[in-house]
Amino acid sequence: DYSVEKAYDGEEAWEKIKANRPALVILDVMMPRKNGYVLCNEIKNDPDYKGIVVVLLTAVADAVPNTSYTHMDGKNTLADDFVPKPIDLDKLMEIVEDNL
Fold first, then answer.
1. Between 60 and 14, whose confidence is greater?
2. Which of 74, 80, 84, 89 has a CA 20 to 30 Å removed from the CA of 65?
3. How confident is the model at residue 1 (pLDDT cuts 50, 70, 90)?
């Protein structure tokens, strides 16, 4: 069983992460106010939260050579994994189970 929270943008997600300290977060790279790449790097660069597993949800996952690369401005990211859109729920659950 898993407890799930949702947020409508990156700022709300960050507040919920700080309040709930989840073991794993799934972030859409295209969130408003703070995108998934930015929030992922904030999580991974914060000593209190860097142990949280971060999975990025993206339409370009198949073109991403590894989890430290992103197409967004050619920047690196510290994500632990990527889930391609459209979402395959079996694949998503496999990633969640492998990382928890």
1. 14
2. 89
3. confident
Residue 56: closest CA among 21, 32, 23, 31:
31
Contact 7, 19 (CB under 8 A): no
Q: Is the peptide bond before 86 cis (omega within 30 degrees of 0)?
A: yes
**34 domain-assigned:** yes
Token duo for residue 45:
């660069």
Amino acid at 18: K
The boundaries of the domain holding residue 89 are 10-99
Token reading at 33: 């106010």
User: Is residue 52, in this structure, part of any structural domain at all?
Assistant: yes
pLDDT tens by residue, 8-37 = 999 999 999 999 999 999 999 888 999 998
Any idea what the CATH number is for the domain that residue 70 is in? 3.40.50.2300
Cβ(15)–Cβ(6) below 8 Å? no
Query: 5 near 20, Cβ under 8 Å?
Result: yes
d(CA 100, CA 11) in angstroms, rounded, equals: 24
What domain count does the chain have?
Answer: 1
